[in-house]
Amino acid sequence: MSGSYKGDINFESVLEYEKSGTFEPATKEHAQRNTPKPKKPSTMNEKSAKGLRDSIAYAVAAVEYAINTGDYSLIQQSNMDKVEQNYYLDPETKEKLEKVRNGKRWVDNAKFTYTLDTEVPDSEGEYYSWDRTFSVDYGAFEVNDGNAEELVPGGAKVTKKFTGRLLAEYKHGVWEVLGVVTQIKEEGEESTSSPSASSKV
């Protein structure tokens, strides 16, 4: 694969967003309002490094959108592997996201920063792997049923960083990607961690 895609993904440049009204960040009084909704890029199924990068960008943006709005439908529309999708659609996480959608809980403007660590992915036949590093800024508070709680004493922001690699396969004209925002367990590792709808999960 050709091209150079090493570095931070600029979501606003790579993706188009559907906007309705003026965006209002979350506060302790209300959840985000008029959150821009990422659109599926027409290039996300191209068999190229760009196509894979765009597929990754949409999946990450879909997760960020779900955490902030509770709408997980974009995750289901992404090229994220079903195993990884199910992490966000298991009963416990789905219940939390539904509470977000219903205005019963929200986080302090969750934000992803995502970096591809090499120019292009490594490949072997139709299988690909791409080293990546990403962090999730959960903000400083979480609101549940009208009660705002600091994530840590003192009200400091909570950021979690994840380093590893994602795996991708190109089949039937579509990318299928695993490890976009979950950690693939490497041989010899005892545990794995991933971002979720709550910084406390």
TrEMBL record:
Residues 22-32 have a biased composition (Basic and acidic residues). Pfam families: DUF6318. InterPro entries: DUF6318. Residues 22-49 are annotated as: Disordered. This is Cell wall anchor protein. The lineage of its organism: Bacteria, Bacillati, Actinomycetota, Actinomycetes, Micrococcales.
